[in-house]
Design a protein that fits this description.
It is a single chain. The strands form two sheets. Strands 3, 4, 5, 6, 7, 8 and 9 form a seven-stranded mixed beta sheet that branches. The chain has a two-stranded antiparallel ribbon with strand order 1-2. 38% of the residues are buried. It starts with a helix and ends in a 6-residue tail after the last strand. The chain has helices at residues 5-29, 36-54, 62-84, 94-114, 119-141, 151-165, 168-176, 185-189, 191-232, 242-255, 271-278, 280-297, 321-342, 362-378, and strands spanning 233-234, 239-240, 262-268, 303-308, 311-316, 349-355, 383-390, 393-396, 400-401. It has two domains: 5-229, Rhopdopsin 7-helix transmembrane proteins (Up-down Bundle); 236-401, Reverse transcriptase/Diguanylate cyclase domain (Alpha-Beta Plaits, 2-Layer Sandwich), CATH 3.30.70.270. It is an alpha+beta fold and 407 residues long. The protein is rod-shaped and about 110 Å long.
C-alpha cells in the first residue's frame, strides 16, 4: 500500500501546526528558559517545510526550500540546547553549527543545480547531509553532563541517533539509483521514512516541553531549599537558629543516653560596647569569628546554634561538665589566635554549662544554662560557671577564669 504524498503532506501540516501553536502558547503563557524559542523556531520551520511539500507543484523552487527547512531542524534545536545548558562545555564552538549548516545547504543546492533530474542523487545527498546533522547534534548533546540523570535528554538522544539510522536505507536506495532513471519515486523517496522522522520531531517537541518543566521543578525545589535554609539558619553565622537548634537538639537527646549530654551557653563579653565603639560591622565580624572558631573545635556529632544577639549554644553528647570546661578553654584560645591573625578587637567569652538531666526538656536545660551564664557575667569577664538543679533552684559551682586576665 503506497502513501498518497499530497494527503500525507496535508496531514503532516495539520499536526505540525498544532504542535507549533502549542509551543508558542506555552512560551507566551508559561515560564520558559533561554533556548526555548529556538526550539519553537525549529518547529515552525519544519511546519513551513511541510507547507512547501504540500505546494510543491505550484512553484518549482518550493521543493528545494522545503528540503533546506527540513535540514535545519537538528542544528536549530542544538542552538536552543546550547543556550538552555549554557554552562555545558560543548565539544565544538557554536559557530561550528552554523558553518556545518551552511556547508550542507551549499552542497545540496550545488548538486540540485548540476543534476536537476537525478532523483536518486538528490535523495542520497539529502539523506547523507541529514544523517550527518542528526549525528552531530546527538554527539553534542552527549556532552551535556545531565543526560545521564535526565530521562528526557536520554529520550532526545535516542531519537537523534534513531533518526539518523532510519535514513540509512533511504541513503542506500538513493546511491543505488544515482544517475539512473527512477521509475518508482516512492521506492527512493520512501514516504514512510518521512512519516517516521516527522513523528520523531513531534515527539521531540514534547521532550523539549518536559525539559522546560524539569528545569522549572528543579528551580522550585532549589527555592524551597533556600527558603528552608533561611527559616532554619542564621544567615550571618550559618548556624541553626533557636527554633531549628531546639528541634535538632531534642531529637539528639532522644538518641543519647539519658543524662550524658552537657549543654553550654556562651556569649561575647561587652558585645554592646563593640557595636557602639567600632560599629555593627565589627560586631558582625566578631560573631562570625566566634561561630567559626566554635565549629572548628566541636565534634561532628555536637550541635551548635545561635539563640540570638551574641548568645550561642552547644549541645555536647556524652560529655561531662568537666569535659565542657576543657572545650571552653580550647575555644577561648582559638578565638584569641584567630582574633590576632585577623587583627580584630579584643574579645572574651563567658560560659554557662549544665548537665542535661534524664527526661529534662531541652528548653528547660537551656533555661538553667542561661542562669549559669548570667552568674558568670556577674562575676566578670571570661568566666565559666556550671549549675546543678536542686529542688528547682540552681546551685552554681565556683566560677573559673578562662584565658588571660587581660583578655
Amino acid at each position: 500500500m503506497s502513501l498518497h504524498l499530497p494527503t500525507l503532506a496535508l496531514v503532516i501540516c495539520v499536526v505540525l501546526l498544532t504542535t507549533t501553536v502549542i509551543m508558542t502558547l506555552v512560551g507566551l503563557t508559561q515560564r520558559t528558559y533561554r533556548g526555548y524559542w529556538w526550539w519553537t523556531a525549529a518547529q515552525g520551520m519544519i511546519l513551513l517545510s511541510a507547507v512547501g511539500l504540500l505546494l510543491r507543484d505550484a512553484h518549482p523552487w518550493l521543493p528545494a526550500l522545503s528540503v533546506l527547512l527540513w535540514l535545519q531542524w537538528p542544528m536549530t534545536m542544538l542552538t536552543g540546547m546550547r543556550q538552555f545548558y549554557a554552562r555545558t562545555d560543548f565539544r565544538t564552538p557554536h559557530w561550528m553549527d552554523a558553518a556545518l549548516l551552511a556547508l550542507g545547504f551549499w552542497a545540496l543546492l550545488t548538486l540540485d543545480h548540476s543534476l536537476p533530474d537525478d532523483l536518486g542523487a538528490r535523495v542520497a545527498s539529502f539523506s547523507l547531509v541529514s544523517i550527518g546533522f542528526f549525528l552531530y547534534a546527538g554527539w553534542q548533546i552527549h556532552a551535556i553532563r545531565d543526560w545521564r540523570q535526565s530521562p528526557y535528554l536520554k529520550a532526545l538522544l535516542l531519537y537523534l541517533v534513531s533518526a539518523a539510522l532510519i535514513q540509512v536505507p533511504r541513503l542506500l536506495s538513493g546511491l543505488s539509483s544515482w544517475g539512473a532513471p527512477v521509475t518508482a519515486p516512492d521506492h527512493v523517496q520512501q514516504p514512510a521514512v518521512l512519516v517516521a522522522l516527522v513523528a520523531g520531531v513531534i515527539f521531540s517537541v514534547y521532550i523539549c516541553l518536559l525539559l522546560t518543566y524539569e528545569r522549572t521543578e528543579h528551580d522550585l525545589r532549589e527555592s524551597h531549599r533556600q527558603l528552608r535554609v533561611m527559616a532554619d539558619f542564621d544567615m550571618l553565622t550559618q548556624l541553626p537558629n533557636r527554633r531549628h537548634f531546639t528541634e535538632m537538639g531534642t531529637q539528639a537527646l532522644r538518641l543519647s543516653t539519658p543524662g550524658s549530654a552537657a549543654l553550654m551557653l556562651f556569649d561575647i563579653d561587652h558585645f554592646k560596647s563593640i557595636n557602639e565603639q567600632h560599629g555593627h560591622a565589627a560586631g558582625d565580624e566578631a560573631l562570625k569569628l566566634v561561630a567559626g572558631s566554635a565549629r572548628r573545635l566541636l565534634r561532628t556529632r555536637d550541635l551548635m546554634g545561635r539563640l540570638g544577639g551574641d548568645e550561642f549554644v552547644a549541645l555536647l553528647p556524652d560529655t561531662t561538665v568537666k569535659d565542657a570546661l576543657h572545650v571552653a578553654q580550647r575555644m577561648v584560645r582559638h578565638v584569641e589566635r584567630s582574633r590576632q591573625t585577623l587583627q580584630q578587637q579584643t574579645l572574651s567569652l563567658s560560659f554557662g554549662v549544665v548537665q542535661v538531666q534524664p527526661d529534662e526538656k531541652l528548653t528547660d536545660a537551656i533555661r538553667r544554662a542561661l542562669l549559669a551564664l548570667d552568674e558568670a557575667r556577674s562575676q566578670g569577664d571570661s568566666r565559666f560557671v556550671s549549675a546543678e538543679d536542686e529542688d528547682g533552684m540552681p546551685v552554681f559551682a565556683p566560677s573559673q577564669t578562662l584565658g588571660h586576665s587581660n583578655f
